[in-house]
């Protein structure tokens, strides 16, 4: 505090202390990101100008945000947005907060998308369970010759994805369709991507409160064994792929063998498997069997 005025640096110290008392896993990072976010400062602003006084109203807003985080609301839910693959994405109660691990799916698909564009001049992408639009919009941003359909069972998620497409300057190449997996999808695509719900129903209640209480259940619950969505995706994908097309899915840490078996039974073969930053299996890429060397 300067006199009776608060500063960003003092508020960060206060947040860090309260988060440590609340036994949060990473009090220092949460404090920096939350306070800077509420004050509209970058992290370098905080370093350079952290001792500048903030208004009473701003300090009140920061303290309200600190109290919400102490009740386990995630930092980016409180801020209402988060960065993903260089995009600025708004969140809504109907959308999963995109995870850094999902950027690995984008990284894995990108060379294939670029190759398709080099061969055909353009590419069509389908993102099933689009949520905020994270995967489809990141790929559209990287590849100006690509177009994408994003589908979801949730109308509210689709509105959020559309808003994010506008914010990130790719709206004219992005359309949405409300659909239970492939039920209302039309046409064929060069690449189908999906990060579907994959947590077994019985495990959802054991998740951290940040996930269980704030990510929508429809984005988490993958049915009794966590594999319901992969059954639908593997059964339907062949009818919506161009010859030689690609399916890329995010998976749970222990689902590589079971998801691969489902896709192989549907005529696909695994061409790539990627691990996440924690060393767990996280992304699988499949193509139709007659288009690869297995
Ligand atoms: C794990 S979230 C992924 C969101 C986003 N793609 C991402 O990676 O951040 C799964 C998404 O699938 C959607 N979903 C769940 N069941 C669905 C269904 N039967 N058909 C289509 N989408 C579904 C959820 O609403 C949610 O947006």
UniProtKB/TrEMBL annotation:
The keyword Amino-acid biosynthesis does not apply. Its EC number is 2.1.1.297. GO terms for molecular function: nucleic acid binding; peptide chain release factor N(5)-glutamine methyltransferase activity. Keywords: Methyltransferase, S-adenosyl-L-methionine, Transferase. GO terms for biological process: methylation. Substrate binds at residues 195-198. It holds the Pfam family MTS. InterPro entries: DNA_methylase_N6_adenine_CS (IPR002052), HemK-like (IPR004556), N5-glutamine_MTase (IPR050320), PrmC_N (IPR040758), RF_methyltr_PrmC (IPR019874), SAM-dependent_MTases_sf (IPR029063), Small_mtfrase_dom (IPR007848). It is an enzyme of class 2 (transferase). Residues 11-80 form the Release factor glutamine methyltransferase N-terminal domain. Methylates the class 1 translation termination release factors RF1/PrfA and RF2/PrfB on the glutamine residue of the universally conserved GGQ motif. HAMAP family: RF_methyltr_PrmC. This is Release factor glutamine methyltransferase. It comes from Ciceribacter ferrooxidans.
């Amino acid at each position: 505090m300067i006199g009776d005025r608060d500063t960003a640096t003092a508020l960060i110290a206060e947040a860090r202390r309260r988060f440590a008392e609340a036994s949060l896993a990473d009090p220092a990072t949460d404090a920096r990101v939350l306070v800077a976010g509420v004050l509209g400062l970058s992290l370098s602003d905080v370093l350079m100008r952290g001792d500048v006084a903030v208004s009473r109203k701003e300090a009140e807003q920061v303290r309200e945000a600190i109290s919400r985080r102490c009740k386990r609301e995630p930092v980016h839910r409180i801020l209402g947005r988060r960065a993903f693959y260089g995009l600025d994405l708004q969140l809504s109660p109907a959308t999963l907060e995109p995870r850094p691990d999902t950027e690995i799916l984008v990284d894995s698909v990108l060379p294939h998308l670029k190759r398709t564009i080099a061969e055909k001049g353009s590419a069509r992408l389908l993102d099933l369970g689009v949520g905020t639009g994270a995967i489809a919009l990141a790929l559209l941003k990287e590849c100006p010759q690509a177009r994408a359909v994003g589908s979801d069972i949730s109308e509210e998620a689709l509105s959020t994805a559309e808003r994010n497409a506008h914010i990130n300057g790719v709206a004219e190449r992005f359309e949405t369709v409300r659909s239970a997996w492939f039920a209302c999808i039309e046409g064929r695509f060069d690449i189908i991507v999906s990060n579907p719900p994959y947590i077994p129903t019985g495990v959802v209640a054991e998740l951290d409160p940040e996930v269980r209480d704030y990510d929508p259940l429809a984005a988490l619950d993958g049915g009794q064994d966590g594999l319901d969505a992969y059954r639908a995706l593997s059964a339907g994908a062949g009818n919506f792929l161009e010859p030689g097309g690609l399916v890329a899915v995010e998976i749970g840490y222990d689902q590589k063998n079971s998801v691969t078996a489902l896709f192989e039974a549907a005529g696909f073969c695994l061409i790539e498997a990627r691990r996440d930053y924690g060393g767990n299996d996280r992304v699988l890429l499949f193509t139709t069997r007659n288009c690869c060397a297995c």
